[in-house]
Amino acid sequence: xLTVEVADGVAVxxxxxxxxxxAYTAEMGELLSRAYRDCDDDDAVRAIVLTGAGTxxxxxxxxxxxxxxxxxxxxTASPIDPAxxxxxxxxxxxxxxxxxxxxxxxxxxxxxxxxAADAKYAVAQARLGVVGDCMSHWTLPHLAGVSVAAELLLxxxxxxxxxxxxxxxxxxxxxxxxxxxxARNIARDIAVNVAPMSAALSKRLLWDTVVQGYGPxxxxxxxxxxxxxxxxxxxxxx
Length: 238
What we know:
The chain is of the alpha/beta class. It has nine helices and nine strands. The chain has helices at 26-41, 102-107, 136-144, 146-155, 161-167, 176-193, 196-212, 216-230, 234-237; strands at 2-7, 10-15, 47-52, 56-58, 91-95, 98-100, 112-116, 121-122, 172-174. Helix 1 links the parallel strand 2 (10-15) and strand 3.
């Protein structure tokens, strides 16, 4: 359900059930969580690209059986652990095609999203008798604002890549065939030209500021601490 390829400092994680449009399963979630942890622990991996095999990114939960049956003990609506924004390593989502439900909410956890312009997207869970998952009630308002998040979560409507870009959910909206290459190029640029410790510190400061709601003076203190950690380091000298 998931393949991992690492080359030249970039790990490409591919949701790999193209015959089911990469529909999400618990096994896929477990493998993605493990791959995130492994990549984050590997100093040779400078950036991560997450994409889907075939023409879809992820069509949502696999409806084989009853995915919305009453849950058992230990159920979580956020099965990807750690979330992409909790890693030190930058994560770029190459959303190469349709991303519905959990398919989209997983992508919303990435640092950067390149999305196919003509694909369909939705946080459709409310139309299926459940609610948005993977922390989407937190990621959506932080990415696009409360009003946009309310509309998408409460209506479950579909939208395309151009609208995703306009709403702030996508960094780029491109023809589907160009999405993965743009993501790879960004990842390679980070791998070659960005100091790993600088990327890790900046990412953590960015997301921790969002999570903790730090004010500007607290951010200034944390930026100073980060500078003191890296100034004069071997990476800065290089």
